[in-house]
Amino acid sequence: MQHGPEVSDADWDDRLDPDLVPIVLAAREKMALRPPLHSVTPEQMRVRAKAEFVPWNADPVELRRVTDFTLPAASGAKAIPVRLYEPDSRDSDGCVVHFHGGGWTIGDLDLEDAPLRWMARAGRFAVLSIDYRLAPEHRFPAALEDGEAVFRLMGTIGTPVDADPDRIVLSGMSAGANIALGTALRLRDAGGRQPCGLALQYGAYSDQETTSSVRCFGNGRYGLSLASMRYFWENYAGPADGPRHPHAVPLKADLAGLPPVFMNHAGMDVLADDSLLLAEALGKAGVLVEHKAYAGAIHGFTQYVKISRLAQTALEETAAAIAVMLKR
């Protein structure tokens, strides 16, 4: 793995992207004054996360239109809230279907509003953000069922999304990248229409705890901790000693037959090696994969797009890759 021997926090601090230093230092101050994320209830976690990202989503990038509505779910579940981002002009009649992060437990349509606006504008494509059902109230495969339901509605008569159903990219950040990939595996196994590409950013693909990135960053000094990931995995996929489906833990899955994948990871992230392992496994399965690494980045760094040039670069490079997929 890329990280090699463990080093001290001070040494890792020197490797942080300068724009992200004040964010990390402020987070450490908060951590010292309140219970860790995984020790509070899911509802408390959601309230905390929603409040923390309000300033990062304030003064949003202007687009031609941003619309909230619902789409029908499968199997009698409640309607799925969605948000459609439409830039001033589009270079493709396709669409990106996006799943937000948050450990399968936190998040809503507001969580990644700023980065999604940036991507839509940079790539000149529409983005449909999905407010899928959250764990632990709705465990696996509820989020994938919502993803599949939305995908199958794209391009159908009466759906208020103007998109070519054969030009749909599934996208996600963190746990959302896991859901995008799991949805693609579910669609592949069901047969029929498939997405034309996947865009996966700093995702969770394995429940392993022995990687070097876990050893280096699992203490949570740079954001996401191993303790939080254990909690999130159990919320979503069940106990660690129980069976976990390959669609929930994609590095356990047969990855053959997936569409082209663009993926990235943050170098200073407990999940960094998940992406390295996935890129390797995708290549061995014959899947076309492009992989970008951002060495000085922390988990979730694209949410700080307002101040971080590294986040802006990552979103622009992701948008460029998606734009290519939508035109294939």
TrEMBL record:
<dbReference type="Pfam" id="PF07859">
    <property type="entry name" value="Abhydrolase_3"/>
</dbReference>
<dbReference type="InterPro" id="IPR013094">
    <property type="entry name" value="AB_hydrolase_3"/>
</dbReference>
<keyword id="KW-0378">Hydrolase</keyword>
<feature type="domain" description="Alpha/beta hydrolase fold-3">
    <location>
        <begin position="96"/>
        <end position="302"/>
    </location>
</feature>
<dbReference type="InterPro" id="IPR029058">
    <property type="entry name" value="AB_hydrolase_fold"/>
</dbReference>
<protein>
    <submittedName>
        <fullName>Alpha/beta hydrolase</fullName>
    </submittedName>
</protein>
<dbReference type="GO" id="GO:0016787">
    <property type="term" value="F:hydrolase activity"/>
</dbReference>
<dbReference type="InterPro" id="IPR050300">
    <property type="entry name" value="GDXG_lipolytic_enzyme"/>
</dbReference>
